[in-house]
Design brief:
By secondary structure, this protein is α/β, with parallel strands linked by helices. The chain contains 6 helices and 5 strands, in the order H-E-H-E-H-E-H-E-H-H-E. Bound molecules: nicotinamide-adenine-dinucleotide.
């Protein structure tokens, strides 16, 4: 690991993430053409936006979501508008490990080239109902458990997705140069947990 003598190792090198993005540079989404991209929570919101944008540029998108009705309708619509049958909807509850395993296994079977090029761990929610920071009624005989759904989806679900992506991305038959970020930095134990956050994007570096 290098870095100048005053500042120590570069953080980018240390955590093996992509370098900073210069948002003033034009972005060319053409690179996604022909790629198989998995998006959790792809039936609406940000996920739907990624789906529409990348599908319009020739990517094959496979979304996993719990909203079957919306997900299936969206895939149908985008298949038509892009004249591409390689977009798919798969039911996936990101809080359920087996559901995510099934999502990846089915996606590989459906992928036009038998592999996965990129994964977006996008499924996320905001806390609804009783707020964690405002516990109430805990002096009762049966105090109510806090609702941790937000944590289960936004943290555990993202970690499940990242774990599966780290396994399957380098196994893409088209992979020539697996991502430098697919092994954890040896000198930062637990780095994966530190960097886990909503909207995590992993790609296998095939280009
Ligand atoms: N929209 C915004 O402006 C904004 C801004 C900042 C942060 N966020 C955060 O980003 C996240 C996503 O926002 P959004 O606007 O795209 O939300 P959204 O509700 O439109 O989309 C979230 C998607 O995730 C799916 N989902 C929910 N639980 C799931 C589960 N267990 N398994 C699989 N899929 C599941 C939903 O069905 C939905 O399709 C949220 O955590 C939100 O708080 C949103």
């Amino acid at each position: 690991m290098s870095g100048d003598s005053n500042s120590g190792p570069s953080l980018v090198q240390a955590i093996r993430q992509s370098p900073p993005i210069d948002t003033s540079e034009p972005y060319d989404p053409a690179w996604v053409a022909g790629r198989t991209i998995l998006i959790t929570g792809g039936a609406s919101g940000f996920g739907e936006g990624f789906f529409r944008k990348w599908a319009a540029h020739g990517a094959n998108i496979i979304i996993g979501d719990i909203n079957d009705k919306r997900g299936e309708a969206l895939v149908e619509e985008v298949r038509e508008s892009t004249d591409n049958k390689n977009h798919h909807y798969i039911h996936c509850n990101v809080t359920d490990w087996q559901s995510q395993v099934d999502f990846f296994h089915k996606a590989i079977r459906l992928s036009a080239h038998g592999g996965i090029d990129a994964v977006v761990a996008n499924a996320g929610v905001i806390e609804k109902g009783a707020r964690f920071e405002e516990p109430k009624g805990l002096d009762a005989d049966a105090p109510p458990k806090p609702n941790l759904l937000c944590y289960d989806i936004n943290l555990t679900g993202v970690l499940y997705t990242a774990h599966l992506a780290l396994f399957y991305l380098p196994r893409n038959p088209r992979s020539q140069n697996p991502s430098v970020s697919n092994t954890p930095a040896a000198d930062i134990p637990g780095e994966s947990f530190l960097s886990a956050s909503n909207l995590l994007y992993l790609s296998n570096g095939y280009s």
